[in-house]
C-alpha cells in the first residue's frame, strides 16, 4: 500500500441512523425458476399464470386459444404484443397462427432485445422493485405467494383488475 496516500488521507466517519445493521444470509440451496405468463391490458386488466419451472407449450396454446375464442365471440380484433421467447415462435404455435387470425387474434412481435417496449416487462419490474424488494423467501411456494400478493397490490394501486389462471409446468424429459 502507498504510505504517502495513507499519511495524506483524511479520516471519514460514516454516521447512520441505524443502530444495528441487518445481515441476510443466503442459503446454499438454489431454487427452481418461477415463471410468469400474462396478458396485460394497461390500466384495464392483467390476466396471469405462475408456474414453478418453465411454461408448458400446451398451457401457452390453451391461453391463446381462449383469447382467440374471446375475439371471435366479441367480433372485435385482439392484438397481442409478445417478445421473441421460444415458446411464442415454436413450430407447434406457428401452425396455429392462421387459425387465430381467422378468429380475430393477431400476434405482433417486439424487436429482439427490446424488453423496455413490453408493458408486461415494465409491470414485472415494478412488482419486483415496489412489492418484492428487500424480502427473502424460504422456497418457491413462498415466492409464488409473494408475487401473487404483489400483482394484486399493483392492480389495486393502478385501479385495474387482476385474474390468476392455472398453468402446467414443463415435464422434464
Account of the 3D structure:
This protein is of the alpha/beta class and 173 residues long. The protein is built from seven helices and five strands. The protein has helices at residues 3-8, 57-74, 86-89, 91-94, 97-103, 119-132, 140-158, and strands at 34-41, 45-52, 78-82, 105-109, 161-166. A three-stranded mixed β-sheet has the order 1-2-5, covered by helices on one side. Strand 1 and strand 2 form a beta hairpin.
Task: Name a few traits of the molecule.
single chain; 173 residues; alpha/beta; Nucleotidyltransferase, domain 5; two-stranded parallel ribbon; 7 helices; 42% helix; globular
Helix/strand-derived category reads: alpha/beta
CATH topology: Nucleotidyltransferase, domain 5
Relevant CATH superfamily: Ribonuclease H-like superfamily/Ribonuclease H
Q: In which range does the helix fraction lie?
A: 40-55%
Q: Looking across the biggest beta sheet, what order are the strands in? A: 1-2-5
Shape: globular
The averaged pLDDT comes out at 80
Helix count from the secondary structure assignment: 7
Q: What is the CA-CA span between the terminal residues?
A: 56 Å
Strand content: 15-25%
Q: Spans with pLDDT under 50 lasting ≥5 residues? A: 1-17
